[in-house]
Design a protein that fits this description.
alpha+beta, Elongation Factor Tu (Ef-tu), domain 3, OB fold (Dihydrolipoamide Acetyltransferase, E2P), 39% helix, single chain, rod-shaped, 4 domains, 17 strands, 361 residues
Length: 361
């Protein structure tokens, strides 16, 4: 009985091993690929990596940097918003600059008030005082002259009736009255003439200088509100409310470099593709008049024909498509820009990498 059991188990083990060997030896049928890899559609096509950009007749996306440094207090837009030229995008703390501007405005207003005061001279009330002083001096002169005439007449009739000292005092009183009248007359002429022309010019120049300082300060105050430089779409916002930004942009802790605080692109039915041609392949490019290209969207079987726009005739180090801190820069590339009509059946956004083949017509 025991031998039968051992024999049965041995037979079952052999059968299980044969079945397992058969099953593991079967080759599974491979799954079909999710998409066909991009292939060169041209006989002598040149491959290039491309990056989608917003449509620009020149340059690339609009990178916005602040002209002043400060803390962000409010962000007025969001990614994807369409904005017009002059639309406020970001507001920075301008309390210090606003106080400086208001101070310079007050100084300019004070300088203007003094300038207008100088131009308005003589003041009617001051001129009337000068006229009254002249009339008073004339009356004093007449009184002194009458007194002298009396003393002189009495002296002429009887020299002993008036002392020499009294007559001399009367003569001196007339001289003093004449001098006082002359001073009052000159003061009247001075008052009537108004402010000195040189004082007016000096005050005018001070007013102009303070006004220009105020205008400069006002222009600088306007820099604390960052506005859209052109019509377009907000592609990326690289800052947050409360963060500090400078004219270099905002610090990215991931790349450990400075990025623009905001990136804008043109809105419209077209997009650009910026292709970077390896310098080794540049001699193989067809003439510009014969260039044609196709773009392949990664992860799909979609290909889109491209229309040639321009070549940026300056070969640069290859640091544009990845992290420039780790990218090798011993390879140089030539930027070639194409455009295409934005498709309606697939989502495409600026910043996407695509495969591009360039050939000849």
């Amino acid at each position: 009985m025991r031998n039968k059991i051992i024999f049965s188990l041995a037979i079952m083990g052999i059968l299980a091993g044969l079945v397992s060997a058969y099953l593991y030896g079967m080759q599974k049928k491979p799954l079909p690929p999710a998409f066909q890899p991009a292939s060169n559609p041209y006989e002598r096509g040149v491959y290039a990596e491309g990056i989608i950009e917003s449509y620009q007749s020149n340059g690339a996306n609009i990178n916005i940097y602040p002209e002043v440094s400060g803390r962000i207090v409010k962000i007025l837009v969001a990614e994807g918003d369409s904005v017009h030229q002059g639309t406020p995008l970001i507001m920075m703390d301008d309390s210090v600059q606003r106080g400086t501007t208001e101070q310079q405005k007050s100084q300019a207003d004070a300088a203007l008030a003094l300038f207008e005061e100088l131009r308005a001279q003589p003041r009617k009330e001051v001129l009337e005082v000068s006229v009254a002083q002249v009339e008073s001096a004339k009356a004093n002169l007449k009184t002194s002259q009458d007194e002298l005439d009396k003393q002189q007449m009495s002296y002429n009739l009887d020299p002993k009736s008036v002392s020499k000292d009294t007559l001399d005092n009367a003569i001196n009183a007339v001289r003093v009255a004449k001098a006082n009248l002359d001073v009052a007359q000159r003061n009247y002429e001075l008052t009537k003439a108004g402010a000195w022309i040189y004082d007016i010019r000096n005050q005018e120049n001070q007013y102009i200088a303070l006004t220009k300082a105020f205008m400069s300060s006002s222009a600088l105050l306007g820099k604390y509100t960052i506005k859209a430089p052109a019509d377009g779409v907000v592609l990326s916002i690289n800052c947050a409310t409360g963060s500090y930004i400078s004219s270099q942009g905002t610090y990215d802790t991931y790349t450990q470099g400075f990025d623009p605080i905001l990136v804008m692109g043109r809105s419209g039915e077209h997009l650009n593709v910026r292709c970077y041609i390896d310098e080794i392949l540049v001699p193989r490019l067809p003439p510009v008049s014969q260039l044609k290209a196709q773009m392949f969207i990664r992860g799909t079987n979609i290909s889109i024909p491209l229309e040639y726009m321009r070549v940026e005739p300056y070969v640069t180090p290859k640091i544009e498509l990845s992290d420039q801190r780790t990218e090798r820069v011993d390879v140089r590339v030539l930027p070639v820009i194409f455009k295409f009509k934005r498709p309606t059946d697939v989502n495409l956004y600026p910043g996407m990498l695509v495969d591009v083949y360039i050939g000849a017509k």
